[in-house]
Structures are given as structure tokens and as C-alpha cells.
Amino acid sequence: MCRASFSPAPAVVHPNIALVPASNATKQVDVSSAKKVDRKLVSILHPSSYDDSCNPLKSCKSTTSVPGLVAVRDVEESSAVSRGSSTDSLQDSWNDPEHVQEPPKPKLSFHPRVVVHEFHRLPGSKQALWYSGAELREFQREAVSLVQQHDRKHWSGFFRRGPAKFSHCHPALGFSSDDSDDAVDQAQDDQAEDQSAANQVRRILIVDTHDLSLKLLAKGFQRAFPRATVSMAKRSNEAMDLCQIEGNYYDIVVVEERLSLFWNRSESGSAFLRSVLHLRQTQQWRPLCIGLSAHIDCDRATLKESGADICWCKPPPDLKNSATVRGLLEALKAKRSDD
């Protein structure tokens, strides 16, 4: 460790540091430690300060400039921080959904012209889609008859069973305001009469080139007339062969007007009906002839002229409906009575 002694020097006034004059006595100063401190302080300054570190006075002058440089650095850092904060604030404002401007939505426009297509129903389709008043009353009679078929249980003393009367039924099942049993008895009589008339239908012939139509018609007629035998044919000559067999007297004949064949050939059901009319005169049998057509408006007149008693539009009416079956039985009865 080196020690040095020197006389006091005149005080140098620095704008940033106030120096206090030393006493007249000589003082020993540890230069090496001061130099070490100066080096540590100078290490944060410009590299040129390392060259003047040997001079104590210059080193002191250089150390006095440290606060100023630090202040400048603080200003630069604060300005950088302020710039960063402003950038972050701008970025946050961009990410904020309130400040984000949505693109303008396209305006929707519709064409002012409206095209209306009028829909026309065929004349026969209304009867096939909607129930008439007579059919609804028939449904009511069937409901009442189902109620009458069940037994009423009596719990008086011991278990007894007795037939249910109309007075025990719900008032909504009544046919009149009196809710008497006469209406029920009349309904049962009508049902028995219809059943006896349905049993008189023994043979039914269906002629159609479409398998689906044949199966649906056969199923419906078999349900409506359980004791009848249903025969099917796809061509008019096949149906004619069945009619010419001795003993095959059909009670109901159903034929399609437009019978399509192979190689774009076609036959008409009206021609087959004329042949049946000729056989009816020779063999003395009176079938009820029903003409079918998907274009009943165009083919109705032709079918009527050929001898069709009833004309149905495809799809045909539901044969589950008792009113439809009753209409067929009444037409068959009128046909036989006229002949």
C-alpha cells in the first residue's frame, strides 16, 4: 500500500460539487483505495476515462460528471419506457373490442317481384282427402258399438257382469239430446244389414299394370269383403280369359284406363269394359264396374261411355272407411235391381 503526503491545494469550485478547504496540517490519503473507488466509478463512464485515471485531479473531475451522465441515462430510459408504454397502450386499444372498428355489413336486398303459382286439386281428390258428414257420423256409430260390445262390472255384494247400456256411456257418444238406446239399436241393425250385404260379394277382379296398385287394391278389398275371392291381372287379355271361364261371375270389376305394355304399346281399360258389357248380356251376370285413372278429368267420359258405374281417381279412396264400402254395396244393389 503506497502513502503520499501533499500540501493543501486551493479549492476548486465546481458547479455540481462544493469542496471544503482542508486544514493547514498535512494529511495522509490512501491513494490506492481512492484509485480503486475511482476506477469503479469511472467504469460506468466513457472508455476514454480509463486513460486519465492515473491523475487524481482528473479522476475527481471525471467522477463529478457521473451524476450528470446517470441523469441523462435515466432520461433516456424513461423516454424508452414511455415509448414502450405508449406502444403497449396502443396495442391494448387495438385489442379492446370497444375500440376495434368492425367492417361494414353488406346490405341485403330482395327482389321485389313475387311469383305465385296457383294450385288446383282434381275433382275426385277432395272426397279422398276429407271426411264427409256421413262418414263422421259413421265413425261415431262405430265408437258406440264398440262401447256396447264390452261388459259393465257391478260390485254390489258379489261380482256380476251385465251388458252395458247407453245410459252408462259418456254423453259425447249420444246421437241425440235424449241419449236414448234407440239410436244404438238402429246402428246395430244397420251394421248387421251391411254385413249381410258384404257377404253377398263373392268375387272381385282387379286389372292394373302396376304391381303396387294391384297389391294395395287387393288388400283393401279383401279387408272390406273378407269372404270374397280377389283375382288380379296385369293385361286385358289375361283378365278376359278369367272372365270367360265358366262359373267366374265377378261381382265387382276394377280396371285401370291406361294399361301400359311393352315396346311403348298401350291398351285401354274402356275397351275391356266394353268386352265385359258384351259378356254381361250373354252370360247374364251383373258386375259393378269401377274405372280407375290418374287423369280422371280426361278419362271420365270415356269410362262412362264404356259402361263404368263408378269412376275413381288415383289414389283410390280408403276402403277402411265404412261409408265407402256402404256406397259400393248400395251401388251394387241398385245395379242388380235395375237389371
Automatic annotation (TrEMBL):
Residues 203-329 form the Response regulatory domain. Residues 96-105 have a biased composition (Basic and acidic residues). It comes from Seminavis robusta. Residues 79-94 have a biased composition (Polar residues). InterPro entries: Sig_transdc_resp-reg_receiver. It comes from the Eukaryota. Residues 178-193 have a biased composition (Acidic residues). This is Response regulatory domain-containing protein. Residues 77-108, 177-196 are annotated as: Disordered. The lineage of its organism: Eukaryota, Sar, Stramenopiles, Ochrophyta, Bacillariophyta. One of its GO terms (biological process) is phosphorelay signal transduction system. Coiled coil: none annotated.
